[in-house]
Amino acid sequence: MINLTTRSYKKELLDNETIPFIDIKQNMKELNTINKYLGGHKITIAGVHALATKHADLKQICICEIGCGGGDNLKAINNYCFKKKISVNFIGIDIKKECIDFAREQFATLNSTWITNDYREVDFGDAKPDFIFSSLFCHHFTEKELTSMLQWMKLNATKGFFINDLHRHHLAYYFIKWITALFSRSYLVKNDAPLSVARGFKRKEWIHLFKTASIKNISIKWKWAFRHLIICSND
User: Fold this and answer.
1) Which residue of 51, 176, 191, 228 has the fewest C-beta atoms within 10 A of its own C-beta?
2) pLDDT below 50 — which residues of the chain?
3) What DSSP designation does 90 have?
């Protein structure tokens, strides 16, 4: 049995800059399916709902995702906002140009701005988004890098930010390893999905990270299937 007492620092295949885009595309499609059927999109929408409810006075909401990949999270949020009659526009940021091109083509009808860049290099100027979030993004980074990310999100979101990411747990690790071995056609998903769990964080580790980043007033909720939803409202 794998030792998950501490998180893994083994790099995921997806972090390799030489991966062909056709393989990345298959990876993004399967991650969308996983998010759809294992509750990932539902958790992201719960984060938006919590912040939108807290800031119900907003007439127009700008939502930014860092590490947006193919944009499927923003599409899911857009569907939710349409049903709730919430006026929304989006900013999607990803360091991979191919991912941004794919998102722009796939979701051309979204009221969105797509940015190819390292999120740390993005300067919003006077047009900072209301909400910033990341989904399945944080576990790619070291604790030092993640501390800086939390501070960046806090600084650049005018109303608040949230994180949807994996809970490191043996059941989660072996469940996703089994599911992807049976149904995935992507070698990236088969390798990286269980590794992502091994790179994930436990609740006490999130608390320590936010304390290190000097960010208070957060809520951390465990969500099925083995995720944490962390919300920080800037008030």
Assistant:
1) 191
2) none
3) E
